[in-house]
Each structure stands twice: as C-alpha cells, then as structure tokens.
Amino acid sequence: MKEMAKILSVMLGLCFSLTAIAQPHAEHLLVELLRNPLGIDKASPRLSWRILSEERNVKQTAYRVLVASSFAKLDRDEGDLWDSGQVFSDNSISVFYDGKALKSDAEVFWKVKVYTNKGECDWSAPARWQVGLLYYKDWDKRWIGFDRYFNTDDHQAGYLSARYFRKEISLSKKVAKATAYIIGLGLYEFYIDGKKIGDQVLAPGLTDYTQNVMYNTFDVTEQLSGNNHALGVTLGNGRYYAVRQEKPYKVKDFGFPKMQLQIRITYTDGSKQTLYTDNTWKGTTDGPIRSNNEYDGEVYDARKELQGWASLGYDDTAWIPAEYVQEPGGKYESQINRNMKVMQDIKPVSITSEDGKYILDFGQNFSGWVKMRVQGARGTEVTLRFAEALQEDGTLSRDNLRAAKATDTYILKGDEEEVWEPRFTYHGFRYVEVSGYPGEADIDDFMGRFVYDEMETVGEFSSSNPLLNQIHKNAWWGIASNYKSIPVDCPQRNERQAWLGDRPTSAYGENFLFDNANFYVKWLEDIRLSQKTDGAIPDVAPAFWRYYSDNMTWPSAYPMIADMLFRHTGDVRVLQDHYPSMKKWMDYMRARYMNDKGIITKDSYGDWCAPPATIEAGRGKSADKKYPNPVLSTAYYYYLLQLMADFSVHLGNERDRADFLQQATQIRKDFNLQFYNQNGGYGNNTLTENLLAMYFGLVEEGEKVKLADRIVEIIEEENDGHLSTGVVGTQWIMRTLTDMGRSDLAFKLTTNKTYPSWGYMIEHGATTIWELWNGNTAHPQMNSENHVMMLGDLLVWSYENLAGIKSKENGFQTIRMKPEMIEGLDSVNASYHSLYGEIASNWSKSKSALEWTVSIPANAKAEIYLPTKNLSAVTEKNKKLQDHKDIEVLSEEAGKVKILAGSGVYHFKIKL
For the Alpha-L-rhamnosidase six-hairpin glycosidase domain, which residue ranges apply (predicted)? Predict the structure, then answer.
C-alpha cells in the first residue's frame, strides 16, 4: 500500500486520502480510495475513489463496494456490513453507504472493485473509517471544570488563567485498541504521559456552543501500551469565555472553560472498558499560562511551570478535585473539518534595534504567532507586540487593531536557554516589536509560525503577467490567514468574525486554491444553526455577535456557497440539508420586506466599501458607512430565486421550482419598471447596479447592448479604466465583463497599478489583500491589511475564464474548458485537483500559433473550445483533429471549434 501525504477535498466526513493500489486486470488502471478519518458520526457516510490512468477516455461503467466489520472478513471478500453488488454507474465520488446500521466506536473496513470501458480492476487495497459517538447517551458521564473565578484570574480585565486537569490510571490488561474522544472548551491540549496527543492547535473548531459542540477523536492505542499512565488536559478560553464582555448585549459569553473526555479501550482478550472524566480528576489554575485571550494575547510565567504535571508520579496534593459543571447545551458532533495546525515556519527577513527594542520584519503578512529562544535572569519579562505595518519612524503602527492588545508576554524562569511559543492565542502581523529581551537578540532566536486550518493547496496558477501572479500569491496568503475553523474577516483586530457578506463569491474562488469543502460544509451548518425560528439569518455566523440586520446581500452567502459546494463536489446532501432553511429565509424576506410594487426594500450595507473617487478624497476618513440600496436587495432576491429553482430540480421538488420561477418572472418585470432608466442604466446608474442587472439576467433582451455600453462607459471614461465597486459589485465584475465579450477590459482592471486596483495594493507594499481599495490612506479604524472580501470574483475568473477550468456538472465530471485568449497575456499555466483527479490547462501563444496542453482525469470528460474558426488549423500531437477517433467535434460556432474529449492528456497546436 502506498500512502499519499496530502488531504483531498471530500464531503461530510470524508477527509483523508489513501492511495490504494492493486494489480489491475486492465493495464495502467489504478484505484485510489478517499477514505474516512476517525470519529465519523454520519449514519450513511459518502464513499469515494479515483481511477488513476494515463490512458485516454477511461470511463467507469460499474463498481462494487464491500464494507466489513474486520480486515480479515474484507480480505476474504465478505461484506458483512454491506455488499453493494455490481452497480452499473459512472458515480465514483458520492456513493452513500447503504448497509447495516453502524454502531458507535465501531471500526469499519471497505474496498471497491471498479469496472471501466478499458477493463476491470482488481479489488483496491482496503481503507477504513471509525464510527464516532452517534448518540447523546454515548457521553453518559459528566462535564468537569471550575465554573468560578480564582485569585489567578483578573475578572475586571476579562482575563482568565488556563485550567489544568490530570488523572493517573492503571490498566490491568494489554490494550488492543484505544480511542479517545474529547470536547475541551473553549480550547484544549490533551496529554498522555507528558506527551501532547496530535499536532492540532487552537482546537476544537469554533461553534455557537449552545447549538453544537465539536469533539475530536484520537487513536491512542500506542500511547496506552503499558499498565500505568497519566492523563492531562489544559483548557484555554477561546471564545467560550468571551474575549470581550464590556458589551454583553453584543457579544455572546458561554461561561467558564470545561471539558468531557472518554477513552474507549478494547483489550486483547476482547473485554472493554471506558475511562471518563469525573470528580476524581484534579485541577489547578495556578500554572504558567496566566491569561490567554484571542484578541489580547497570552501571558506565560515560566516560573510557574508545573514540571511533569501530565506525567506519572507528579505531586498534585496542592491541586483540588475537579468539579461537575453544566454542559454547554449544544448537540455533540464529530468535527468533520480539520483542526488548525502550524502549517509553515517563517523566518524573519530582518531585525533592527533602537532604544533597547527590536523590530522583526517577517516580510509577509500572515496569522499565527512567534516562537522565541531566550536566556536570561529569572523574572525577566519579554514582551512581543504585533502589527501589520510600521510608522514612518520605524515603530509599530497599531491603530488599526482597535482595542486588540495583540501582545504576548513571557517571564523567564532563568539560567538555562528557554524556548517558548503561546498555546491559546494568535495574531495577524508582519512586524513584531520585542522589548525586555536580555542580552543581544539574534534573528535566529525568532520564528514565525503560520497557523491555519490543515488543508491542502489544490490549485496552482501562473501566467506571463507578473502582477497577476503576485495578486494570486497575495490572495493565497490572505485566504489561508483567515481560515480559523470559521472564515474570519481578518486575523488582527478585535473582530475576527465570520461575516457572511465577505464570502459569497470569495468562497467559490477559494475552492480553486484550497481543499476547503469540509470547512465550508461546517460553516453552512453554523449558518443554519444561527437562523431564528422566524427565518432570519444573521450577518455573522456563528452568531458570536448578535447582528441580525435583515438584508439580502450578506445572507446570500448561504445559498451561494451551497451551490458552489454542490457543483464542485457533486454531493446533493449539501442541498438536502440546507434547502428548508434557505427557503424559510427567502419566504421571511419576501413576507417582511417586499412592498406592493414587488421591490425588496431592505438592504443594510449597500455596496460596502466602494472606493472614494480619488485616493485623496478618502484620506483620513472611515469607510464604516452604509448606503442601503433596494436595487441591490431586489436584484439579489431575483438571482437567489433562480438558484432555489435549480436546487428544487436536483431535489425533485417541481412545485417549488414552478413557484420560484413564477416569482422571478414577476420580480424581473417589477425591477425593470421601478429601476430601469431610459439612458440605459439602473437605479443611480452606478457600476455595481448595472453589473448586477446584467449578470443576473434582469435586463430586457433588447436593452442589453445599451446596458453593456453603459458599463464600459463607466469603467473607461468615468473611472479612467478602473473599477468603482465595493464588496458587492466586485463579486461580479470580472465575469460580467467577460460574458459581455470584454475580457480585455477585465484584464485591464486586473493589471492596473494605479488606484483603485489590486495592483495599487501591491505597489504600496501589500503581501495580502487589503480590506479597502484605499487602505493606505483611510482612517485606521477600519483598514485591515489582511482581508479577502475585495477579491470578489477574481480567482473564479482566473481559473474558469483565463485557464478554462470550470465544472459543468457533477463535481467536474464534465468540465467546460473555454479560456479567454487576451491580447497582452501570452500564457497561462493552471491546475486544480478535483475529486476525480488533477485537471490542468496550460496554454501559450505566439504570433503564429497557440499551444494548449489539457489534462483530464479518468472518469471525467471535457467540452473544449478551441479558439479558431478553421478546424484544419488544429492538430493534436501532430495529428489532424479529424483523424482522432477519441475526440468528437461537436460544433463550429462563434469563432471557436467545440470538441468533446475523454480523460487523458492532449497537446493541441493551433495555427493563427
């Protein structure tokens, strides 16, 4: 068996990949299983696999899945849990388990035999998953913690010291299998015999703990190989003990940190035992982590270290018995999205000193913390302050952090060299000020630790344009920095909330870069659980802030991300799970905010953060201004009606589909009656209003040319070749221009270096994406230098329109490859790891020819648009296109030859 190190995008409990290779009957055909991790609590998990082959036009014709309760049975081809039989289907990415009911904590083994048009494969090597705890009563013991303050806490400042808990255990038999299930709130670290279990950080994932809480699962068989062991858990605050309590009407506070742990053990003689948290555990708050706060940082006093506290033999006589405490209230769920992890170490690029303070420059804005090496006298206090930018005098610029202190403090225990990094905080930064450092600091004494959700980068993009490549790089860093188990808006100031308005289209583009399907499946559940009983959806989910402003554009993220996940993964369950809640919200908005003229009157933000007319016009001014606009809310309602109609088709609900389409027809009429101007624009005739009307299909057929002319006029003449869109309009601008036949104008916007543009950010030192187009001159109250909302549809456009990698149906089983060959762009090299395998599109052009290499994974096909009017001008591997039996010419239209090709690698050359 050959293992792959990478994680692959799958849905609802399928995270890990394993390359399972068997000797196939058909030459060059291999099967790769996408297998489940530990702790899957779905009754019918989704099983997926890939066919690996270099042959062309490989199609799956049938499959047979075996699922067994033991490896031995599976090895004998006994599917005692499920034998699907031979199923004639090309489905390989969403086969739902349909066997016997699974039991909690059970280990399940499976394999698949695949039949293709090229031959039959042998059975794949086995994969396995472990069932989680399916029922509430599986957690039949008690929560422990301390629901009170201690003298180690600073109640007035809102600071709480970490809670430490321990227990020693004795096992009388040899362990065959042991699985630990832990819920540690807000954040935890779990130890056995002094060694941390797992490499996750800031775990578990954030939720509204009154609605649901996440548990993590670990195989600890190896750690419990002896008879006597010590268990230890450290609890940090996270968002359970609210990081800001001065506004109780705004911020949810869930209480004091608490935990529940159980270890289920099967001994070699077949007997079983479960270890639980109870009041025989002991705890203390008098440890080295004196305070830990997501916004403010961590204070660590090494003089208070509890040496060996999670190991056998530690003297805990000064500790007190753990106390039984109330449970959080939410449903217990296995965490399907991966935890955060230190994903990369980043060395500083420079260190400077003045007046006893050092400034570290890491050369890159990112999120995480600093690991420090230091040696000095006992009691020496070293302070690290974090910032994204510097003042002109070289000191930190921290005004844009608002009330976040973003400061870590380490107090030395003395004598020996000490190495430290925080446990329960993170920062967004490029620069760090170090003060109080004993002796002379060296650049090698510090290391930046880049922290985000553990997920694979699945997309690559480069082109002949260096600026476009840099924007793509900045986007990657910004997106990764803001993956914190929820898609936060920014990692540095006292906000860090999952604003729905930032992500409707950004999430779509992000999926081309990261294996984030489970991440966004989890977030959709956060949104669903935050919905009020009347149907209202908040602006922030989980609703850590109680913001329910009722508008169309922000909650549009809910159906739009569901649509993206369905199209990119082919898993209809994402629609099944959320359709009722989405429909309830749509009905709520219609009933509450549609007037007698058919207009949705409620919009909260307008085109949020649209750029000031000039860079000077916005100097020193706050962008925190709202301009509600019923054109936006009504246009979005129309667009979402069409999405809901599409969802209804996939769910077999023809009655709802007819109702949604009928509503859409009437809305379209009312929208044009109320908002269309005879001069060819809508509403106030802004770029955003007109873009929405064009892209959503609201404009009457006979008026499209006039509206297109108006859009171009705004950009080229009124804006001098620049955009003027905020967070709403930027989500649609690149694709709208391309659909209008003006991809050249979209390219111009992308490659501008003057204000406002992505290039302007880079020209002024940005290494991520700013919150504001004028982030270098705006009032610091709101000018994060690490946001994603202004990416809009740039990434979507880059992959789908420049590279030509777009899913037409069933999670890229049918691909639409229609790249834009733009004057001034000489090459594009892009790839995307879909569930079927890698899709690649690499093209380059000269004055005389275009060369285009396309890679299509097995069991998929592509509709390929060749940019030529002349079929005879095309060759594939030096052979005329017409002479290829495995390529079907579908049509010759609009200056392009459309062909259909199965899996394989194709090298096209087109004479120009």
Answer: 457-802
Which tokens belong to 137? 């009563």
Domains 16-130 and 459-800 share a fold: no
Domain segments of the chain: what residues?
16-130, 136-337, 341-453, 459-800, 804-911
The CATH architecture that domain 341-453 belongs to is Sandwich (2.60)
Chain-centroid distance, C-alpha 139: 29
* Alpha carbon distance 303, 413 (integer Å): 5
Q: What is the CATH number of domain 459-800?
A: 1.50.10.10
Euclidean distance between CA atoms 340 and 361, whole angstroms: 24
Q: What is this structure's pTM?
A: 0.95
Q: CB-based contacts of 570: which residues, under 8 Å, 6+ apart? A: 93, 94, 810, 811, 813, 835
Between CA 674 and CA 679 the distance in angstroms is 14
Please, what is the Cα angle at 186 between 182 and 190, to 5 degrees? 40
**Is 90 exceeded by the pLDDT of residue 682?**
yes
State the pairing for strand pair 861-866/814-817. Answer: parallel
User: Can you read off the two tokens belonging to residue 577?
Assistant: 């799970």
pLDDT at position 9: 24
pLDDT band at 246 (very low <50, low <70, confident <90, very high): low
Q: Residue 1: name the closest of 152, 187, 160, 125 by CA.
A: 125
pLDDT band at residue 251 using 50, 70 and 90 as cut-offs: confident
**DSSP per-residue codes, 148-192:** S--TTSBTTTTB-PPEEEEEEEE--S-EEEEEEEEEEESEEEEEE
Total residue count of the chain as it appears in this document: 912
Rounded to whole angstroms, the Cα distance separating 418 from 306 reads: 15
Q: What is the mean pLDDT of the chain?
A: 93
Q: Which CATH class is domain 804-911?
A: mainly beta
